[in-house]
Amino acid sequence: MALSSARLISEASTQAEHSSKSEREWSGKGVRPWRLTKISEPRPKFAGKRVSAVRSNRQYGFMRAAMEFFIADTLKKGVPGLREEFAKLQTEMRAKKNDTTTSNIHSSLNRYGDIECLEKTRIVLATHPGGRDYIHANTVSSPFGSDRFICTQGPLPDTIYDFWVMVFEKKAMSIVQLCKFLEMGANKCAVYYPSGQGDVATYGDITVKCCSAKLLGTPGRVVQRIFSVFRGDVGKDVYHVSVENWPDHGVPEADATILQVLQKVRVSTNFPIVVHCSAGIGRTGTIVAVEIILESIILGKHVTIESVVSRIREERLAAVQKDSQYLFIARLVLEYFLRVGQLSRSPQIEAFFADYTKAPGVQAS
User: Fold this and answer.
1) Are 123 and 139 in contact (CB under 8 A)?
2) Active site residue: 117, 179, 189, 277, which one?
């Protein structure tokens, strides 16, 4: 499937008109995102509003330059170079002293004792009846907003209510679950919602009803649900996707699955997207990095995997756990460019893909 240059120009111009400054180094909060083309839809026809050809061509040029910069940097480093780069990031992270407060004070509320929560970006609950304000969750910014994502651990039995309080307080409309409840015989996440259509569950003063549940239709198994969530007289709908083919400490196949998941939740621009796996750093950090790279490129920002992951780690400690996940970020972004017709399978691309499939912890795709 190809993506027309006219469509890119039109949508990027609209995006540029709505951009504003952010408190952080990304682009402004509330910026409407580029509608990354559906990878399953036919080639779109240009039907956008009329824009200046000069401005349009300039904006497309910015995007194209940013994309080519990312591709060139990725291919120049190759799989061996990216693995070395990740190892360097790991060493630097371990050497840093971080402002964390969770190891002792909130240890009973943390799924893993060695995964700490950065104080400066952590979610502070305001309406918990017991007065508890802590949840192992951090806001992560992107070019489209300073609170674009909430990265969090999979709820524990004692923190399911806290999770839904957070969803309510932060007005989240989308949740991405990247782990199963049970993996390889180990509990990875408490069952925090009713799974069958029509099922209802109550957590404290919050009631969750599953209004629909169906497969998304992706190569990998993904279940999408619509929840009707009530807290007292206040109700809201929440879109939930559960990715069931992503192994812990590993990566799924680099097919359309994750790209379609991102496509589904990307429309949530005014409210944060909640993303979790088990610890909330490995799989979670990986998918967030992919989305931030795509958002950056559409705004013409020159980024690398290293710069994006380093930035995410300033807000969600230890995001992206394994070098296979680091490589998957590169592979999936390149896959997106292939699927929208902005990249061809050159010998250099094919060589990178071949090296990728041979890397430890990677599934062939």
Assistant:
1) yes
2) 277
The pLDDT mean for the chain works out to 86
224's tokens: 């999408």
In the residue annotation, 277 being an active-site residue is answered as yes
Please report the domains of the chain, with CATH numbers, ordered by start residue: 55-358 (3.90.190.10)
For 61-107, how does the pLDDT look when each residue is reduced to its tens digit (9 = 90+)?
A: 899 999 999 999 999 999 999 999 999 999 998 877 565 655 557 88
Which pTM was predicted?
0.87
> Could you give the CA distance from residue 119 to residue 233 in angstroms, rounded to a whole number?
32
**250: helix, strand or coil:** coil
Among residues 92, 29, 149, 121, the alpha carbon closest in space to that of 310 is found at 92
Q: What is the torsion angle, in degrees rounded to the nearest 10, for the CA atoms of residue 222, residue 223, residue 226 and residue 230?
A: -100
| 292 CA to centre of own chain | 8
- The number of C-alpha atoms within 13 Å of 202 and in the hemisphere containing its C-beta is 4
